[in-house]
Amino acid sequence: MVDISKSSRGIGPARSATIARLNDELRQNPTQPGANRIVVSSGVAVLIGDTNLFRGFQRRAELLRAVRDFDTFPAGDDPYGEHDFGALTFAEQRVFWKIDYYDADLAFGSEDPTDPAMTTRVLTIYLASEH
Question: What's the start-to-end Cα distance of the chain, in Å?
């Protein structure tokens, strides 16, 4: 198994900047994630509602826009400058989002999160109460 902890990834400013750019690209293009994935927790699914109905679809779009437009990365939430976590309020609920780095098969952590060819980014959106 690959250790995906921050300390094992050789964090440096250039590496962190590359990871931040790739993470921002995923967040800013939620309708075209490519090989990456965007998932929501069961609590967020209930908050959004049935996406087969216009109301649910509209709320899902609003949530994705809020994550896309998020640009506040305080050092306490983003100590490595990778833009991999955010917290916001949506529909009067505290919502977190987090990006994790997996191999192409989603079985293990990515050996190199700076390499899109060997990394699948998974953006998970969940309620703070589900943390």
Answer: 24
In which order are the strands placed within the sheet that holds 37-40?
37-40, 120-127, 93-102, 85-90
Give the pTM. 0.87
Quick: pLDDT tens for 73-102: 999 999 999 999 999 999 999 999 999 999
Question: CB–CB of 107/4 below 8 Å?
Answer: no
Q: Where are the beta strands (DSSP E) in the chain?
A: 37-40, 85-90, 93-102, 120-127
Alpha-carbon distance of 85 to 123, in angstroms, equals 9
DSSP 10-21: T--HHHHHHHHH
Tokens, residue 34: 């490519």
